[in-house]
Structures are given as structure tokens and as C-alpha cells.
Amino acid sequence: MRVHIPRAVLFLHAFPLSREMFTHQSEALEKEGIPYVALDYPGFGEEPPFPGELSVERLTDFVISKINSFGVKKIVPVGDSMGGYIIFDLFRRYRELLAGLVFVATRAEGETEEGRKARYNLIGRVKEEGTDFLVETMLENQTSPATKRDERKMNHLRCMMEKATKEGIIKTLKALAERPDSTELLPRIDLPTLVVAGKDDERVTPPEVVRRIAEGIKGSRYVELENSAHLPPFENSEGFNRALLDFLREVF
């Protein structure tokens, strides 16, 4: 079978979630007739873990292999958190495939020494205790007060996180700890770019951190969404979809 899709939106999920976090965006794009691809990373959602070590670069190559198998020629990646790290690597190594970029609740900086130690400490705890404590920590840190009051949303997030395998979490935490710094790329990015922050993201990527990406990319658009923290596409899907569709209509 051969498939040719000239251009599509590519959804890249946050850690430790799955492609399900973009369900509302998938529905919106289907109504607009815009092709999209939503992937699970190895060890998350329905995707089995990778053998061997994992890195941001290897995740990017995994994504590219999927895109190639679908016959997609141009993509607009939408990356939340670690999805943004993959977008930077896509620009670094696969620039010719990109038509535009959407960074969500992410940062350009590499991991700090303190942050690296914290991730390796988490790896040690996951190996000894399993993943339940990590799920509860992520639910607390990644969501806004409005989301915490919504039992349905919180249960959905918990279900997504509980699908993540222990192996996938351990390998991905190491990949995140060792990710490269991408700040030097910002002035070189010459593609239409949308940058989205969650107004209530106080613990992971505060708006002032996310805004640095927009400030570093000439001509980019910055949007800050209320009632969302680290997961704007899921927490405030209506506001996120408005910003995304406005951007995609211009790019496409």
C-alpha cells in the first residue's frame, strides 16, 4: 500500500500521557478536513517500549519513520512539553519536512544540573516503587485549579498516565534528563510559529519560560490560555482549538 498525504498536523504528546490528550483537537481537525497524525511514544498509550536506550533524537527518528510510512510530505508539529523538545530536534535535523511549528507549554533550555539529578532520582524511585506515585505527582503538578475541580478530566488524565509502562517511563526520564539545549536554534527558526502557554502553569513551564521561545523566534505568535497549566490542549480545548485553527488556516 502506498499513501500520499501532502501535508498534515502532527500531534506530539506530553510526558507521561498519550495521543489521547489531543482527542478534542483531532475532532476539530476532522471537521475542518485537515489531515493529522497522532502518535504514542514507545512505552506510552498503545505503543510498546523500544529495546535499548532512548534519547530525544531516537524519539524523533521514531516519529519520522511513522510519518514516512503514512506518506506525509510536510508536517506542522504540535508539541506539548516533551513534544516541544522533539520539535526542536525536527527543526535541527529534518527542517525540509516542516511547514510550521506549534510549541505548547515547553522550553528551549536544556535540563539544569538540579533538574537532571531530580529526574535520575525519579528513575530510582520508579524502579523501586513502581509508577503510582509518579502518576499522582504529575496530576498535581501539571493541572490547573479548574482542571482539578473537574473529576471527569482528572480521571481521564489518570487513565492515560496509568497506561504508560514502567520501562517507557524510565527510559523517557533519562532522555529528558539528557536532552540538548535548543536556545541557539530560536533566532534560526524561519517558519510560521505559534507558542502557547497555560496561564496557571506554576510548577513545570511557567508562562514567562514559554514566552522566551516566542521572543526568540522572529514573527512568532504567543498565546496564553486561562484555566490551563501544563496541558492546554486538554485542559482548555476550546481556547486551544481556536488558536490552533486560526494558525493552521494561515499556514495551510
In short:
The protein has 252 residues and is of the alpha/beta class. Helix content is 49%, strand content 14%. Strands 2-1-3-4-5-6 form a 6-stranded parallel beta sheet, with helices on both faces.
In the CATH hierarchy, what is the architecture at level 2? 3-Layer(aba) Sandwich
Q: Given the structure, what is the number of helices?
A: 11
In CATH, the homologous superfamily goes by the name Alpha/Beta hydrolase fold, catalytic domain
General form: globular
By helix and strand content, what is the structural category? alpha/beta
Radius of gyration (CA) equals 17 Å
Instruction: Supply the CATH class.
Output: Alpha Beta
Helix content: 40-55%
Low-confidence segments, given as residue ranges, are: none
Structure write-up:
The chain is α/β, with parallel strands linked by helices. Helix content is about 50%, strand content about 15%. The chain has helices at about 25-30, 55-70, 80-95, 115-130, 130-140, 145-150, 150-165, 165-175, 205-215, 230-235, 235-250, and strands spanning about 5-10, 35-40, 70-80, 100-105, 195-200, 220-225. Helix 2 crosses helix 3 (about 80-95) and helix 5 (about 130-140) crosses helix 7 (about 150-165). It is globular.
